[in-house]
Write a structure and sequence with these properties.
Blueprint: H1 2-9, E1 12-24, E2 33-43, E3 48-52, E4 55-60, E5 66-67, E6 70-77, E7 80-92, E8 94-107, E9 112-123, E10 128-134, E11 138-141, E12 161-173, E13 178-190, H2 195-205, E14 209-217
Antiparallel strand pairs: 1-2, 1-14, 2-3, 2-4, 3-8, 4-8, 5-7, 6-7, 7-10, 7-11, 8-9, 9-12, 12-13, 13-14
Length: about 230
């Protein structure tokens, strides 16, 4: 017990803040955002540390829309089809989340480090606007008409949900108090139920994104007293 307490007594903890910008890794003109939060770091030795960052993120939507197009078939005669494509999509102004990345960090050099971990996300309800546009009816020829024939997403599917994913990043220690890091995050699971909510997750919440952050360290102290 004394040895364990001694080892824990060597762990240094420090608290700070982190803030920066974020965006998706493709269609980068549509979802630029900002984030701010706290950071708690446990420094085990010169090489290894671990951190957690509860933070608020907001992504401002410029032009991205959740698509849910379908077809309306009016006439079927043999292998000819009279059909109209229904352009069905949802617009929204912003995406709000609270995120908790938890990662292990390894120092390659004195100032350069790599880190990896999990990213836990609470997604707030999205205030979406539904848009429907009907195209001109056209004649199509084929053996079957198996495209989507009704909408699969409605406004009730944009509710709150929990997500989980991973993160990978690279950090640089500018000074004892300031650091900068660049990371990639991607969600791979959430508690969405049904085809409509899952379609929203596939198009929006599972997209990989990058974050560029600046961190500031407030203080450093040992929280576990050394063994007697």
């Amino acid at each position: 017990i004394a040895e364990t307490q001694f080892r824990l007594g060597q762990v240094k903890f420090h608290t700070g803040i982190t803030f920066g910008i974020n965006n998706y890794m493709y269609n980068t003109n549509s979802m630029m955002g900002i984030h701010i939060g706290l950071r708690e770091v446990a420094q085990f030795d010169e090489k290894w540390s671990m951190f957690a960052e509860p933070k608020y993120m907001q992504r401002f939507n410029k032009s991205y829309a959740i698509k849910d197009n379908y077809w309306r078939v009016n006439t079927i005669a043999g292998n000819e089809y009279q059909a109209s494509e229904i352009e069905h999509f949802f617009k929204f102004s912003a995406l709000h989340t609270v995120e908790m990345p938890i990662a292990v960090r390894y120092a390659l050099l004195k100032q350069l480090n790599l880190f990896a971990g999990v990213n836990l996300v609470y997604n707030f309800k999205i205030n979406a606007e539904e848009v429907t546009r009907i195209s001109e009816e056209k004649t199509y020829t084929g053996n079957s008409f198996s495209l989507q024939s009704k909408p699969s997403i409605d406004l009730d599917h944009f509710g709150t949900r929990f997500s989980a994913g991973y993160l990978l990043g690279l950090g640089y220690q500018i000074s004892p108090a300031f650091d900068v890091d660049l990371r990639m995050t991607r969600n791979f699971w959430d508690n969405a139920a049904g085809s409509g909510p899952r379609k929203i997750s596939d198009q929006l919440l599972y997209r990989p994104s990058f974050q560029l952050s600046i961190g500031y360290k407030f203080s450093q102290k040992n929280k576990v007293p050394p063994a007697k």
